[in-house]
Amino acid sequence: MKKLNIGLFGFGVVGEGIYQVLSEKSQLQTHIKKIVIKDPEKKRNAPAELFSIDPNEILNDETIDVVVELIDDADAAFEIVKTALNKGKSVVSANKKMIAENHLELIELQRKNKVSFLYEAAVCGSIPILRNLEEYYNNDLLNYVNGIVNGSTNYILTKMRSENQSYENALKAAQENGFAERNPTLDVEGVDAVNKLSIIILHAFGRLISPDDILKKGITALKNEDFKYAAEKGLIIKLIAGCAVDKSENITPIVVPTFIEKSKTLGLVNNEYNGVLIGSDLADEQFLYGKGAGRYPTSSAVLSDISALRYNYKYELRKGIKNGFHGEYFAEKKFYVGFKPGLDLDKSTFQNIEESYQSKDYEYVTGTISLNELKNSGWLENPEISVISF
Amino acid sequence: MKKLNIGLFGFGVVGEGIYQVLSEKSQLQTHIKKIVIKDPEKKRNAPAELFSIDPNEILNDETIDVVVELIDDADAAFEIVKTALNKGKSVVSANKKMIAENHLELIELQRKNKVSFLYEAAVCGSIPILRNLEEYYNNDLLNYVNGIVNGSTNYILTKMRSENQSYENALKAAQENGFAERNPTLDVEGVDAVNKLSIIILHAFGRLISPDDILKKGITALKNEDFKYAAEKGLIIKLIAGCAVDKSENITPIVVPTFIEKSKTLGLVNNEYNGVLIGSDLADEQFLYGKGAGRYPTSSAVLSDISALRYNYKYELRKGIKNGFHGEYFAEKKFYVGFKPGLDLDKSTFQNIEESYQSKDYEYVTGTISLNELKNSGWLENPEISVISF
């Protein structure tokens, strides 16, 4: 097993946690040689001589073979990771935005430089979803991946349902418990889930898709009336990130609030937990479950990746890298669309209407919509309109 | 990707299912060349020229590179697998008894002959537990594996609790639904779970342990009163196979009915489902969940193994193979021990007693017992005595 010399970028809660574990567990045979930070004045729980504000102290150090990148700024992270890979260092990162936006280039750099670039921590915290998609579902017969991949929104939705809290209070509780950022936009608008889904889609189906081409609706448009509708039907609302592939190899990548039955597997996933269902012709339906948000799950996934580098593990992407999306969606789904009266909703967007409800306070329509029509409707971006999939 | 020529032993429900899938999915590039069966008279859903009753038609055919072994008889299976490995063929098997009893020899044969021997289907049906233990938890910091690994007993226990059925009726329902064998002894006495646990322990901890050294209590001694006790305390009873490793590398392998809280993760595993919790210093607690009993899960796991052979996957057992057990258990646990009055139970087996209950119909004692004492007590083998772990 290889002994690793590590250069660490970032010393926030995750970085510090990793430093502590690696210092204590000598059997891992890893050694943090240098830690690059932005603010040299801040007090740190590690020897002062470890720290530097100069990235080159890591990037130009030939004895450092692994870079662990844990900084917030996606653009700066990309520069660091690119340089590290080009200098023949393996890289572990948890930066889903940076990866989703530069996936192909990063994979090509990894291949060209014959190093490893691992990022299990970027998707579903401590759940080994990428490793499983790489190793176990490496066949042509994967049908779908459906998951609750964002712990913050799942925590908020759970509190809203089980404790009847308002969105605002549930968000506050999530922030107080460390499950949501102070600026929660990326989470609650579904951006984070979209980034994760685009990473999953490459490992699951060998399809490269830009986050911009994934249909997206967050949880901020949901109204009390929508939860009431769900409760009446014995359903719960979860933010599900999903992608199915049909027999003609068309994919339907979408992040959208979704009604599910409480007793269904994804209904078991509550609070800050994540869970992913993997459906395959060969392997039946599989379910992976674990903590998705918070300090510890991210640290643990990063540590697992570091551990895997000791035996030169790398993502092989055996399913290839095909262009994932050609500008059109070839599926239709049943949706619920809710809104306040007075909003002039173009109901011809529905292929067929199943239910239609009006009162002086609220209206909703349920029925089938093609995903192309849904995209063109503008409803996904409209904060006044709830769109919930069945 | 390699094209595979397969020789199949056994054409029961799993064998036939695999034949069908491989015939339909040409993209898998696998081809079943010969199927060896016992009874040449039986009608089969495949061309007659595929069948033979002579094992050598597969074993001596140099163009066959993969043997898929799906027969019931563990001894005959062992001979087939040994010969196949020695002839340089890779092998996929679902025969947990055969593997648990001959694990070391089989692994040595695999290494010596530089072939693959895969058996994901032998443990927890379609859940990729071995693959995960091999690939993701390949570090020195795994603390425990706790699982519901037998679908038949989990189905029976679920029915007994949720529908208040008697053991006999629940067993009958399990048999009618294909989740229990006509002769259910191996399942209900915990033998099947023990075999699976011994396989898990090697992949999880790199420790070789004979099934005979795993403490074992099945579900047949459980009485109504035990379920009543559980209900009163808000607990449910599950047959849990578990192994923890302590800081001195002592392991505590045990299969025993266990009280758990309904809301705990393993409490979510009902009916024929299996679920495994993996605890590690690095990777937080992970949970893998899927179908454990029945035709389809076994077939799907076998097919996944076949698929993995296309890229030469093999178990590396990077944690090594150490002798797992030195005749003593170094742990103690809290147990509930229930029995009918009149049975002269030696209570000095308990290190300390927490509760003690007597009525004219039933008695129970709860308290801490060292696993060594438990083994020596004879209670595990006594069908009159319920032993349930907390």
UniProtKB/TrEMBL annotation, chains A, B:
Its EC number is 1.1.1.3. Gene3D superfamilies: Dihydrodipicolinate Reductase, domain 2, NAD(P)-binding Rossmann-like Domain. Keywords: Amino-acid biosynthesis, Methionine biosynthesis, NADP, Oxidoreductase, Threonine biosynthesis. PROSITE patterns: HOMOSER_DHGENASE. This is Homoserine dehydrogenase. Residues 128-306 form the Homoserine dehydrogenase catalytic domain. Belongs to the homoserine dehydrogenase family. GO terms for biological process: methionine biosynthetic process; threonine biosynthetic process. It comes from Moheibacter lacus. Pathway: Amino-acid biosynthesis; L-threonine biosynthesis; L-threonine from L-aspartate: step 3/5; Amino-acid biosynthesis; L-methionine biosynthesis via de novo pathway; L-homoserine from L-aspartate: step 3/3.
